[in-house]
Amino acid sequence: MMTRLLTAGVLGALCAATATAAASLAAPTVVTVEGGAIEGAYAEGVRTFKGVPFAAPPVGPLRWKTPQPVQPWNGVRPAKDFGARPMQLALFSDMVFRSPRIDEDCLYLNVWTPPVMDGKKLPVLVYFHGGGLAAGDGSEPRYDGAAMARQGIVALTVNYRLGVFGFLAHPELSAEGPTRASGNYGLMDQAAALRWVQRNIAAFGGDPAQVTIAGESAGSYSVSAQMINPQARGLFARAIGESGSVLGMKTPTLAEAEQQGMAFATAAGAASLAELRALPAAQLLEAAGRPGTPWFSIVADGVVIDRPPIESYRRRLHAKVPLLAGWNSQEMHAGALLGQAPATKESFAAVLEKLYGEQAREAARAYDYDVQEAARDLASDRWIVYGTWKWMDLHRTHAPTYRYYFTRPRPGADGGAVHSGEIEYALGNLDGNKVYRWTDEDRRASATMQAYFANFIRTGNPNGAGLPHWPTVDHPAPNVMRIDVTSGAFNPRDRERFEFQDSQHHE
C-alpha cells in the first residue's frame, strides 16, 4: 500500500513537472510587434494572429502612396479576426472570404505558428493570394496557414492593394514622388510586408533567414516580380510559383500606364489627381468596373520593375534562390480556342492559321498530337503556362529549380486539373473547401504535394523520406514531377512547343 502511494506520489510529481515544462514551452498569445502588443489565439492546435497591420492605412492623402510605417497603438490590440479585404469587385465565383468587408484600409497580414516555442528558429512561408491583381484576400480558406504550421512552419498570408488602388499610374503621381514613377503600389505593399517579416517574425518563432515567398496565379506573378524588385532584395531565401509569371504578361511602360491612368481619371470625372484622390473608394471601384476600362496591372515603372522583366532575367538581375514552380494539366480548356467546333485536325488547323498566319505550319509541328490535348495545351500556353516555363528556363542555370505538373482533377470534374485547383492540395486545406467530396485518393495526392512544399520551405529541396525522388530541371530527363494520387518524375517532351512560343515573343 505504501509502495502504491509512493508510486502515485512520484507519478503525480512527474506529471506536475511535465505540465510545468509544457507550460513553459507554450508560446504566448500576446506578442510585441512594430506598433505595439497584439493578442492572438489558439485554434485547431496552432497559434493564430489575424488582421495584423504591417503598414499605415493607405487612405486619404496616402492613397497611391508608397506604404508608410505602421501607426502605433496603445494597450494590447486584438488579433483574433481577419482585417478588411482590399477594394475589389466580385470577379471570381470560387472566392470565399472570411474577412468582414472590403475597405481601402486593407494592409493586414495573418500569421499561423506552431503552439510551442522550444528555441528553434522555424522556416517561414509568406503566401501572396491570386485573383488577377484585382481580387482576392488572405482570409480565403484555401490559403489558411494552420496545416503548414502543423508541419513546423510559420505561415503568413498578406493583403496588398488591388486593381486601380494598387496599380494606377498617372503623370501627377509620378511627379509628386522622389522616384518620378507611379503604379505598382500592390508590389510595394508585398515588399513592405516582407520587410515587416524580417523585423518581426522572430517574435513568432520564425527565422528571418529562412523566408519562402509563394503564390498562385497573380500571386505567382507577384513572386516572379519580387525576384526582380530591388525593394525586395535579400528579403527571402526561396520561392514557389504556382501557374504564372511576369514573363508571360505584357508589362506596359510607365508612359503607357500614365496615359491609361489619365484616361481613367477623365472617365471617372476627375480633372486632377487631387480630385481623383477625393473620390470615394466605392466610386473609384465602380468606375474601374465599367465596360472598356483597362485592367490595371504591373508596370515597368523604372523603379519597382526597373526594366522589362524579360530583360532583368536575361541579364541575371533576379534573385538567385531555389525555385519550385509549375502548372496544372488544364489551365485552360480546349474550347477556349476551338469554341463550339469539334476537336478535329481541320478545326485545329483553322485556329492555327487564324492565330499564326505564315507560322501556322511551325505551330502545327509543335502541337502535333491528340487534337483535344493540343488545343488545351496551346490555350494554356498562350495564357499562363509559357510564361511560367520561361521563368524557370531562365532561372534554372543560376539556382536549383524544380518543376511540377499537377494532374489531379477535383472530385466530379471532367478533364484535368483546372487553374487554381492545386491550392488546397498544396497547402493541406482540402477540408476548408466544402464544395467537393474529397476522397482518400485526394488526401493522398494532397499529402504528397504538401510534403514536397513543406520540405522545400524548410531546406530549398522538396525531397524527403517516403517521397518519389524529384530531380532539378537541369538534370537529364525524367526531371518533371507529376503530382497526383501516384506521383513520379517523367519527361513531358514539350520543349518544341515552348520553343515555338519563344519565337512568338520578341521582347
UniProtKB/TrEMBL annotation:
Q: Which residues form the signal peptide?
A: 1-21
Q: What is this protein called?
A: Carboxylic ester hydrolase
Q: Which Gene3D superfamilies match?
A: alpha/beta hydrolase
Q: What is its EC number?
A: 3.1.1.-
Q: Does the keyword Iron apply?
A: no
Question: What InterPro entries does this protein map onto?
Answer: AB_hydrolase_fold, CarbesteraseB, Carboxylesterase_B_AS, Carboxylesterase_B_CS, Type-B_Carboxylest/Lipase
The answer, when asked if Hydrolase is one of the entry's keywords, is: yes
Alphabetical keyword list: Hydrolase, Signal
Q: Which Pfam families match?
A: COesterase
| Ranges of residues in domain Carboxylesterase type B | 29-487
Q: Could you say which protein family the record assigns here?
A: Belongs to the type-B carboxylesterase/lipase family.
EC top class, as a word: hydrolase
Phylogenetic lineage: Bacteria, Pseudomonadati, Pseudomonadota, Betaproteobacteria, Burkholderiales
